[in-house]
Amino acid sequence: MNAPRIALRASERLTISSRSTLTAHVRENSSSTLQKPAAVSSDEGLPPSLDRPLGFPMPMQPLPPLPTLLQRTKTLLTTPGQHKKILAEEGGSYWRDFHAMRQAGGKQWTAPRLLFRQDKALYFPNVKGNLLSSGKEVELRVLLEEAQTAGSKAFLVRCFSATSGEEQVRGLGEALGVATIDLNMQTNAQQARYLIMDGGYASQLRYIGAVNAYVGYTYLLDLDGKIRWASSGALTETEQASLAKVASKLV
Question: Cellular component terms, GO, for this chain's entry (predicted)?
Fold first, then answer.
């Protein structure tokens, strides 16, 4: 079953960030664009299964307006310890993440075989940014609401920053009847209309386990925005079968 078509155009991209840039790409699911994702051929040498829910205890809340360039610059220059905070978030992560890719492609956990219970699951964080195509400011919360209005009953959020991570999650969920949203987390603002905003999005990513810049992460959300299933790195054939099974229970 194909996923309902959502309100935003397939080409829309949303940029969200703190020190780094977070891009959301909302895709329409059509049979002409479906790609079968590559799977890891063996389960040997993989980390243990994720045995606890990821996320935040509170649901997504409306966010304040994004700060202007002047406001961001003023905060950077006048807030005590701001430079140290940025260095703590960014420093040393490059080589740590790179070397972690040598072990199971950077996979930190094996995806669970079952959904996290609805009453135990935690919430995906809300983020805000500008659509690259139009400059429109929008929240992830609003995108989920629009997809829900269009008939979607579940959402697959695919997070990555490097090409390696994008390749790991490309095509996942596009034949499962769920709305897919890509969050492209860049470590700089080289592309046009990228927005760098105050506040630590890096700390939010740690709550959902997305700590390696080279790894792709996948989160299956229910209508409440709760993370009911999550994967890291390229999915094994067993994990792909698990995703198809758990997604069918939500749609």
Answer: mitochondrial inner membrane
